[in-house]
Every structure is written in structure tokens, then in C-alpha cells.
Design brief:
Length: 205
Amino acid sequence: MFIRSRRQQKILIQFVFLCFLLAFLFFVLGTLLEAQSQGGFKMGWGFLSEMAGFPVSESLFVTSDPEDTYGQALFVGIINTVKIAVTAIFFASCLGLFWALCRYFFSPRFSALLFFKIQIIRGVPLLLHLLLWYSLFIFVFPEVENSWSLWSIYINNRGVYFPLLDMSGWQFPEFIFNGRNISGGGHLSPEFFAMLAAIGFYAAA
């Protein structure tokens, strides 16, 4: 009888919580409708066809301009999300496999050290990982004038510039403004590498 009563109490608490939640949602909806009627606000998806007025700083396969619509900017954001997700999954899988093989084949002392390092990575919040890798990229990597170069690939604190193949052929990065900037080719920003490293190391651990 006691267990049955406790079960009924839980059901009653859940029902009351659901009622409060529905009442809150109806209150918010009523407030929005009232604000719409008084202020002339428009609700719906029509804003997606309006001009965004800002470019997305990083895009893959597609260009982003201030004249693009909110819908196009949202599409670029979705592409960027898929890009970082796919690359982070691949990087984390390779790194996790490498760590597992190292723990299996190397000495027990090295395995214990690697296990301790993994536990430290797991104990640090992901946001701190992002800040750490971003700060490392910004403050450790050289300025544009002193970029590290490997063939036609340039690495500096603004990201990585590399040759890119498009409809008109290969586009190579070139120094402009007396070497203070790089134009042309492909570009991956420090934010991308910070997210890739942070998510990759955190997920691999």
C-alpha cells in the first residue's frame, strides 16, 4: 500500500508540473501574440528571405556575402556545423585508436602515464579546452609576415591557407599589402582548429 501511494504521489507531482508547464507556454504564447498585434511584429519564417546584412566569416564550398538572405546564412552555418562534426569525429577516432594501441603495446609505466593524462583531459570542461587551444593558436603561432610555409601552405595566427581547386582551376594563396595579409586559396580559421582540437581530444579521451 505504501509503495502504491508513493507511485501515486510521483504521478501527481508529474501531472502538476505538466500543468504548470502548459500554463507557462500558453502565457508566453499569449504575450507574443499581444506584442505582435500592438507592435506590428511578424511571426513566421518570412524573415529567412530578408537580407542578412552580414557575412559568415568561414564557409565551405559556398560564399557568404552581406547581401545574402538569412536563409543562405543559415545554410552556411549548417554546412560549417557538418564540417566540424565530420572532421572532429574522424580526428577523435584516429586519436583514440592511437592512444589505445599505445596503452596496449608500450610498457606499463607509459600506459599508466597515458591513463593519467586521459583522466586529466576528461576532468577539464570542454569550454576550457576551447579557450586553451584558441589561446595557443593565437599567441604561439607567428604573425602573417612570419608565416610558416610548406610548399603553398601557410600557417600563422590567422589560420591555415592552402591551395583550393574550384571551377576556374587551382587558386593559390598570395601575400598582399606588403605581406601583411593573404588572399586567395582556401582558409581554415583559428576558431575551426580550436574547436577541432578541443572536441577531438575531449572525445578521444
